[in-house]
Each structure stands twice: as structure tokens, then as C-alpha cells.
Amino acid sequence: MYSVLMKSLIFLPLLASNSLVRASPIAKNDIQRLSNTKGNKGSKGSSFDLLLTWTPYGFAGDISIGSPPQQFPAFVDWTWIGQYVFTTKCQGDPEGASNCFAEDQPIFNQSQSRTFRNESALYPSRTWNPNHFFFYEDLTVDYASDIQTIGPSSTRVVIQAADQQFDISEDPYPFAGVYGLSPAFKGDNASIQSTFYQAWVAGAWPEPFTAFHYCYNGSVDTNKSTCQGADGLETLGGYDDSLVQGELSWYDIIFFPEVNVVDFVYAPAILNYWTLNLTQLTLGDKVQALNESTGAGAVFDHASYGRGAPLSVNAYAELIAMTEATPITLDSPPNNGNQSFYQVNCTTVTTFPPIRYQFEGHERVWEITPSSYVEKVDDFCVLNVRTLGDGDFIAGNFGETFAKDKYVVLDFENNRVGLADLNW
Fold it and tell me: Whose CA is closest to 314, among 343, 281, 284?
């Protein structure tokens, strides 16, 4: 089960000549035209705190689709474009669910929704292979529309209705789909973007922001009260000023095609990510090299690929030497990267260097402390580091480990990421 659907994302390929160009948002006049489209008006509500549950894949929260609403857990993913959902359709048979799914697999039964519409005349079905749902098995979706309800927001959105191509009944998933929160770029078809984005355009959310903070085990919020008892909180349609310590630092995202080479490999390519231009990486005060030919992309991703401190292969080797770490083989490693794992002396962790990052747009330095990048696994203290590519830093996934004690805001109108220290 861990070998499939470890990450997820869908999008149409984009072209650019420079991997570090700013990812421009969709023009406001295009947004206005969409918001005036007949049948696309939503019921405007206030912001809403979506309670998140930690799973091996990432965070999941309850959403509803259809009329009457069918509620189910959805995997919440910053790197997914659209609302993917398992339906009763299997290998082209709209009533073939038993041939693909276990009885306890949550799915959306489209035939039981009176507001479900097939939108194939507007948006042809698509297949990706390879992909980060099922890797070298086909990922096929039909486009449809229906009413999506999350908290006070209820509006018609275009969804990606799965046409499951093979049997996954042996390993049912703890969710029925993926609630994508990927950014929309200029030139994209705004009608098939993230359903949060669609709903905001339709007027169903008051502001174009989502915000996240992580109530991890070991945080100062021992009762998880700031997450209302949940493992995390994804605020939709705004952000909570009371959780911001000081001020938010805002960073424009960039278009970075190398992601589809070293991180998430899709065909057709998928390129819509909350990626910042990493300008400096240090271990303590020791500067680590960044890839000069590609630049360095910091991909914000709080699903499974975002576990572990993002480092280059070379910087990881430096950290291993600095901490006098030794190799270890683990049955349950702290992240799903391909790098080897190393153990350290638990009594010396406080002497280790912080891992520090700077992003284009501010002088502010953000760090991962030793207590956050060293994890206890089977009574061993292990370096929880995840690497991508070879040599110097090309790209890294900034998720759970980086987000500890931080507040992360995504701005869908201006395509930027806001960061602040979390005011516990």
C-alpha cells in the first residue's frame, strides 16, 4: 500500500524557457469572467477550519460532494490540482466498483447525486503514466461537476471522477479522494483548477487564502488546542492573525520544471507547485552549495514527500560527518525518500547545527532545529533527512518537518506563500 498514492498531483503541461521565472496568477479579468458564468455561483460563507488527521500518506479531512451531500475523508494535498475522487466506475464500467475496490473503500457514488453532471463534452478524459498515484499503472480521470460542500462553502465545481483501471481491493485507502490545493498559473484553464480556487472565484470563500499549522506530537501545544484537538488545521478562505507571531513574510512562487524531473514525474508533465526560489542553505553557519545550472526549488508539500528535512545529497553527507552519524537499517523509516538512514548519539543532539534556509524575497532565515530533524525510531535517534537528485541542492519538499512551529499561508490570488513563526 505504501508503494502507491504516496503523492499526488494533476495538471496540464506548461512551457517556460527559464526555470526560475515567477509563476504569474490568472489575470483578474479572467477571474471575473469565470465568476459571472451562469450556474457557477456559490453560497458565500466565512472562513472554515478543516480539521486534519495524520495518515501515512499525509493529512486527511472530511468534505462532501453531491446532492444529497456524501461526506467522506479526502487527502488534502498542496501539490494536487483539482478534486480527484474514487467513483463506482472501474475499467470503463460505471457500475463496476466491486471489480476494483474493497467493500470498505470510501468512494463517491455519482449515481446517487441528483446534481452530478458528466462534463466530458467540455473536458475530455485524461490518463497519466507515469504518475504519483499508481506510478506505472494508468491514472485515468473523467471530468464531471457537482456541488462540493466544505463548512459554509457550497458550490458547483469541476471534479476529476476516477475511472479506476485496476484492482486495488487488497489495500483500501483511508480516504475517497484528494482535495487539491495546487496554484493556478496564468494561461491555465481556471475552470478545472483546485476546487478551493474554483469556489473562491465563484464567491463561495471570502478570501483567496488557505493556511496550515501542524499540532505535532512534542509541540508546546500538548493538548492540540490550537488545532481543536486534531493533528493539524487547514483554514480555508482566510487565515488566523492570532496564530501569526510577528508578521507574515510573503514570497512569490516560481515556475520550476525540474520538479517533474527529480521529484514528481508525470506524463503529461505536471508543473503547478508552490515552489520558492531557495537562495541559501546552511548547516549552522556553513554554507552548502546550490545547483548553479538549474537553480534550487523549495516545493511546499505537507504530504508524505514533505517528511524529513530537505537537503541535497552533498549537504546530507556533510551533516552525517558533523553529527558523527552511523548507518542504520530501519523497518519503518521516518520518511519515504531513497536515501540511506543514519543514527546518532541521542545525548549529543542538542549540539547539532540547525538547518537554515533563505528564500528569494526576504533576508529572513528559516530553520529546522535538531530536535525537529532527529527522530526517535525503534529507540534509535535517526537523522530524518530527505534528499532529491544528485550532488548539490536542486529541489526539496518542504512539509511536515519544515512546518513545525511555523504558520504557512497560500495566496491563490497573487501566487505567493506566506510564512511566520507560529504563535502557540
Answer: 281
